Input
Amino acid sequence: MISTLRNGVTRGGIELRQTLTTPTDLWAYLFPAVILLATVFFMRGAHVPGTTFSLGASTLPSVLGMGLAFGGLLTVAQQLVVEREDGTLLRAKATPNGMSAYLIGKAVVVGGMTLISMLIQLVPGLLVVGDGLRVTATGWLMLALLIPLAFLATMPIGAVVGALFENPRNMGLVVLPIFGLVAISGIFYPITALPGWVQAVGQLFPMYWLGLGMRSVFLPDSMSAVELTHSWRHLETFGVLAFWTVLGLTLAPVILRRMARRESGSAVAARRERALASVNR
Output
């Protein structure tokens, strides 16, 4: 177990260095962060309904929470699908405890790049819309608990999604629903402005709770008045994220083992032939 963990961390560290030194990979992480930061910048002059607090300042923590969710859900799913097609997973399967080391390495590289993207948004964001944002001692504790729980709640689900798709071109079937969840999760506008049934749907998924948790870290307590139930709902936040963690950690090993059993050289070759055929049409 210790050797698997060490191999996974080493693998993740190598991938992380490669990502940081490969312009195309680096841009794939940084471009969304730049776009979201620009969105917050243009929202800085608006106000949260019923208050004089900047909507941009309120949105920045929500965007940070969304970034944690995207890192765990979308990035893990996309990389799993791509590396399944190019044979990386098959090579991992061929080594002792290779799949476990592969997943640990993936957690290291995705977690590392997600945190870097978060800092890229946070530091300039504080300069643009920093008025009113603050982090108390309780906020730092909340942040220290929320970030690892965010990855535990989303990465296994992202791995499950990636295991269900063989073709990277089908990932749009996942991306569109996730952006739909962003729209109803109170990330860019208070969820209280949405119809009741939409609020209920939004609260079923981690996106809303990660945004709420990050808002509780950076916004003054008075801003909880514009939230549902007029509170930060810390217990509910950890409860829902814990539920998704248990669900993901229960489903992911089963589905990934089934996926790994189906991997073979002929399966990888067949996927490559289909990909080449679609390109040559």
